Amino acid sequence: MNLYQNVLRSDEKAAFGLRELYRSYGYLPFKMSKFEEYDLYVRNKDFLVSDNVITFTDTNGRLMALKPDVTLSIIKNGKDLPGTVEKVYYNENVYRISKGTRAYKEIMQAGLECIGEVDDYQILEVLTLAAKSLEQISDESLLDLSHLGIVSEVLENAGLSDEGKKEILNLLGEKNLHGAMEICKNEGVCEASARAIKTLITTYGTPEEVFPALKEIGISEEPIAQLEALVGAMKSNGIDSVRIDFSVINDMRYYNGIVFRGFVKGIPTGILSGGQYDKMMKKLSRKSHAIGFAVYLDLLERLEDTKEYDVDTVLLYDETDTPEEIAAAVKALSAQGSVTAHRNKPNLKYKKLVTVKEAKNLG
Q: Could you tell me the CATH superfamily of domain 1-138+265-307?
């Protein structure tokens, strides 16, 4: 693949690298149709990144959709096989509104799913692959982890109304401490529970910074111990880019347990999102457990915008230069990197500008 590094877009490079990474851990490719019955998506809109779905009617009169998501199709088309784990990865084009242009777009998306008897090792493996996926894309990345068991217990202990829980969850996702404390005050939440909610909102950072504060809020040891063990195992395996952040929520109607979001330098929003989604499995009449993540490769367009150069050399020619001379100059300059030939100066970012006559002298 190194031969093509200079011609592939960032999303294409990432897709090749991620495919190789997932294969190396024994994940098998999952291939699906471009179309799915619209009913699958309309019943699970909240699970989707975007609820804008492109629909059409097929020759049998069924309302179909161009797939905006892969996970739902994997769940729908799989089977529960007790005592086994199905590990699949995908590199598929999905159809949704681009976050960059806000127009419908065919978007390359990569990801993986681990479905079946999911234990702590399987969770660790998926988290490890999420962190390694980010490393494939950028030398500077972060994986933010949360545990919905911890969040859920804190909210239950607070005795909030259903509406209050919903509002607190939204405010937690926004890290809005003032708003959350107002809700606590209005609903008569005790001081200890309000302090626990405050801890979830304000506590962010390395495991060493977060776990001591977390152990002071009076909740069950089990979810904290699970999170601590997973982070410790990742660190033992050389992954030190993990942070604890309880603003990583995902939809609690579908997700449970460990949830996470990944970031890379140069892109201000999460480029990777995932977690355990046993509740989604149950909603679709599946008995298996599941964890997975998706990498939103369309966001890598922003990395293309930060490139310093479009091309190494622009070669300018005029009417006195013959096609043979121009071709010879292109060949000579291409040994030093990419080169493009134009009669007039193009609107490109380049390292150097050379005329055919100058190229001859350089030779």
A: Bira Bifunctional Protein; Domain 2 (3.30.930.10)
Rounded to the nearest 10 degrees, the angle between the axes of helix 120-137 and helix 10-24 is 150
Which segments of the chain are extended strands (E)?
A: 28-29, 35-37, 55-57, 63-66, 85-97, 104-116, 141-147, 204-205, 242-245, 256-264, 272-276, 289-296, 311-316, 339-342, 350-355
- Residue 87 and residue 27 in contact, taking contact as beta carbons nearer than 8 Å: yes
pLDDT of residue 93: 79
User: 126-135, 180-189, 347-356: which has the minimum mean pLDDT?
Assistant: 347-356
Q: What is the pLDDT of residues 106-139, one digit of tens each?
A: 778 899 999 999 999 999 999 999 999 999 998 8
Tell me if 255 sits within 8 A of 148, measured CB to CB: yes
Whether the per-residue pLDDT at 195 is higher than 50: the answer is yes
CA distance 134 to 136: 5
- Per-domain boundaries in the chain: 1-138+265-307, 141-258, 311-362
The structure's pTM equals: 0.80
CATH code: domain 141-258 is: 3.30.930.10
pLDDT at 3 > cutoff 50: no
Give the helix ranges, DSSP H, for 36-119: 38-42, 71-77
pLDDT tens digits, 86-98? 999 998 878 776 6
Can you name the residues that pair with 355 across neighbouring β-strands? 316
CA distances from 287 to 75, 116, 192, 282 (A): 11, 8, 37, 6
8 A C-beta contact, residue 220 and residue 153: yes
Task: Supply the DSSP symbol for 140.
Answer: S
For the chain, give percent helix, strand, coil, nearest 5: 40, 25, 35
The average pLDDT across 252-281 equals: 93
Q: Do domains 1-138+265-307 and 141-258 have the same CATH topology?
A: yes
Per the structure block, which two tokens stand in for 270? 């999460």
